Amino acid sequence: MTDMLPVVVVQGGAGFVPRQRSEASTSGVCAAARAAYAILQGGGSSMDAVLEAVTNLENNPVFNAGCGSVLNVKGDIEMDAIVMDGKTLGSGAVSAVRNIANPVQLARLVMEKTSHACLTAEGASKFARDMGIPEVPQESLITEYSRMRWKDNLEPDANPVQCQMGKMGTVGAVAVDREGNTACATSTGGMLNKMEGRVGDTPMIGSGSYADNKVGAVSITGHGEAIMKVALARLIMFHMEQGQSVEAASDLGLAYMKSRVDGLGGVVTVDPQGHWAARFSSLQMAWAAAQKDTLHHGLYCGEHFTQSID
Amino acid sequence: MTDMLPVVVVQGGAGFVPRQRSEASTSGVCAAARAAYAILQGGGSSMDAVLEAVTNLENNPVFNAGCGSVLNVKGDIEMDAIVMDGKTLGSGAVSAVRNIANPVQLARLVMEKTSHACLTAEGASKFARDMGIPEVPQESLITEYSRMRWKDNLEPDANPVQCQMGKMGTVGAVAVDREGNTACATSTGGMLNKMEGRVGDTPMIGSGSYADNKVGAVSITGHGEAIMKVALARLIMFHMEQGQSVEAASDLGLAYMKSRVDGLGGVVTVDPQGHWAARFSSLQMAWAAAQKDTLHHGLYCGEHFTQSID
To answer: Which residues carry the site feature described as Cleavage (chains A, B) (predicted)?
Structure first.
């Protein structure tokens, strides 16, 4: 069974990816999966791998996390991120944090250097300073595209739903390393034109993320408020505990969210044996997976391309 | 079955209640349960009832929520609160909020007046101002006892574990109204001497609270970081979905948290038929329940006193 290990699966957000951005989204998740897979192949831990993948996506302006995050109603960037270690069930998260390049790395420091699981807003910034993490100007995180979409949504004839569509959700990764340890990491700029201080599902353990070596790991993307209503990450894990495959458990969770609270989203899922799935109920989700020297990726429902990793 | 309705169950925090404070804790939860029960008897909703109970406990300086909250490492009060409506699965929460008397009422406004489920820190304060909620001086929330314990814990020979014992956890309530609608509310000052910006399990849906008309409602107290690791609220609900009684599901959840992550806590639980439980793995938990004109209450394991409600 364990000859399937190691594996990493990456998601770049569920929703609608405009055509002119779809190629960059695909190449972004593929690059993140490759970088994380190199760590696993070198004997690195699943936690190191998901950190590498999500840092990669945060640094890529195409995605709604780190640089490229959507703007809140005031035109500012406030970000949420989490990591969870399936071996200990320990986690670290930050919410509504500003002026740092890589919230997911700060989340890991919360897990490793404090007795807490989540720090928010100015408290998270203070901790970042104490840890020697450089403050970056907000301008360095804002892309032209983000500012354009924010402005569009302030127009009197704006269609907030349509504005929301262009860039939804989060970025995230799940992995299993050679030892069978699972981990997940998720990071986001949240919802376009959100209120100041809005916290979504991402930093909430059991909603946007969960990892447990006895069951597997998941990272969720989609409409945060819907994901929270059904605590989707934990729900998918329960289906796996009851014997469902990674694919069936993911689909059952997403179908429940659709039928119960009319919410759409996507998920990447692994089990401790290295089985993996990338599933979504939204129109698209950029995803990539790396296992056995093969890179898998897709964007639309049913798409599954492969290429070899040298 | 529904002749058991309505019911409300209240908890005032798990942990160790010093002898000189045990009487006030008991009378506090009993008063909160009575006030909430009067609302249910008058035909009020379960949401109104849990709000009444938790507001009552926030206003009571004996409990670690609202006035009487523990102080963080800087000597400030930052509070977390949540409400959840079992009919819609909608919820509202605030985290690390300062200078308001009743965080649970602000949490309800987040649910009812925004499209979000959680607002944090300064964003939550701004929303409170927009809603016309008066800002109160921090001094009005700090009790002599809280300040004394904070100072004790700064002493060079302080025993942080012992300091933590005196006042742990949260306050919370669950209820079912005549229509069979479930609701929960939880509020806390968090952990003594916590870092600035620390967020615990309370505002995290599925960790400290959950309500679903198809299953029931729970409000959790105890060591926040342990509760989050196992997403305890959702776990107890899963046991109920699988046919366990409110009591058995609560005990199974608490036992799992003890065995898996060595965490202690307590819970109040209802199902939609009006069955209820108040269970804890800590030494004590002040609790009270009101149903069929009878008030039930207890503090130590196995205690169950009753008196009639006129």
So the answer is: 169-170
Residues A143-179 as b/e (b if ≥16 CB within 10 A, e otherwise) read eebbeebbebbeeeeeeeeebbbbbbbbbbbbbbbee
Task: Note the ipTM here.
Answer: 0.95
Architecture of domain B9-308: 4-Layer Sandwich (3.60)
Q: Where are the domains of chain A?
A: 9-308
Chain-chain contact of B206 with A234 (C-beta, under 8 angstroms): yes
Pairwise CA distance, residues A131 & B248, whole Å: 44
Check if the beta carbon of residue B101 is closer than 8 Å to that of residue A176: no
| Strand order through the sheet with B265-270 | B209-212, B216-222, B265-270, B276-280
Q: Are residues A210 and B225, on separate chains, in Cβ contact within 8 Å? A: no
In chain B, positions 263-302, which contact chain A (CB-CB < 8 Å)? none
Selected residues 124-183 of chain B with any CB under 8 Å from a CB in chain A: 124, 126-127
Interchain contact, A230 vs B119, CB within 8 Å: no
| Residue B148: Cβ-neighbour burial (10 angstroms; 0-12, 13-18, 19+) | exposed
Q: What does each of the 310 residues of chain B score in pLDDT, given as a tens digit?
A: 557 899 999 999 988 877 888 899 999 999 999 999 999 999 999 999 999 999 999 999 999 999 999 999 999 999 999 999 999 999 999 999 999 999 999 999 999 999 999 999 999 999 999 999 999 999 999 999 999 988 888 777 665 555 455 556 799 999 999 999 999 999 999 998 999 999 999 999 999 999 999 999 999 999 999 999 999 999 999 999 999 999 999 999 999 999 999 999 999 999 999 999 999 999 999 999 999 999 999 999 999 999 999 7
Q: How far apart are CA A265 and CA A284, in angstroms?
A: 9
